Every structure is written in structure tokens, then in C-alpha cells.
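Session log. Operator J.P. requested a structure for one protein chain; no other inputs attached. Running the standard single-chain path with C-alpha cell output.
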Amino acid sequence: MVYFYILIQALVLIAFLSFLYYSVRGWLKFAPWVPTSRKDYQRILRLADLKPGEKFYDLGSGSGSLALWLSRNTRGEIIGLESSWPLYIFSRLRSGRKVKFKCINLYKEDLSKADVVYFFGTPRPINSLLKAKLERELKPGAKIISYAFKVQSWILEKKDMSTKNSKPIYFYIKK
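Structure written below.
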């Protein structure tokens, strides 16, 4: 019985250290794990204007909360990309088959079939790596939604701020 408790403690420690490692790694490559505020879900849905059969990619989907909410409130196909396997596993356990989650580096995923791409990233990776990827891969007319930070030198279609205290949501359309 003592060995069982030691095993459980070891597994919890491994899970915690993995979560810490992937969180720091994610922060350096794209963004720290900061969940999108639930009060902003409706604003994102309105900007996405997702039609049945359209594909919505949540880049860095974290715990999957936004993706799961969208799957209940729209008829589009929701795909969450997450590079942190602890968050990916948590998302999968919560989702059943409602949302397709992938444990993958978002820079390695082909986004050419995306109709809408949503992300929260820090300015440096957005404007260096992600911007170039989206310009290369997205089809004309694809919608891009950036939570809190602008994509430099892109033509802004809309900046959504419901109140002075809300985070800005930037909306672009791929030309």
C-alpha cells in the first residue's frame, strides 16, 4: 500500500513538472497559458461568424474551454491545437468527441483549410513567426482573430472593445 502512495506522488510530481516545463516553453515560443476570459467568448463568436461546415482553429487552445464553448454554440468544426501535452490531455478528457484537439506545435500544422483562426499570443512571436505562417497558408477570405495584441502592418477590419476595461479583440481578413 505504501508503494501505491509513492507511485501516486511520483505521478503527480511528474505531471506538475511537465506542466511547468511546457508552460515555460509555450511562453517562450508563443504565449503563456492564459485562458481567454469567458466574458469574451460571445464577442469572439460574433466576429468569427462561423457557418455550418466552416473550420475554426484555436491556436494554443490550452484547457479547451473556448473550443468547447464554441462547439456548443455554433455548427462549425472546431479544432484546438495545443503543444503542452498535460493541457492537451485535459482538453481531450473534457471534450469527448465534440472538438478535435491535436497535440502539435502550431507552426507545424497546415492551416490552409481554416476559415477562422483565433489566437492569443505575445507580440514578438505573433509578428515574427505566426504572421508569416498565416500569410503563407491561409486562403483568401479567411478570418483572423487576435486576442489582446495586434498583428503589425496588417489592415485591421475591426477592433472590438465592449468596454474600457475589456481586452481588445483584433479582427482581420486574409486578402
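Operator note: The helical segments are 2-29, 41-48, 65-73, 85-95, 123-137.
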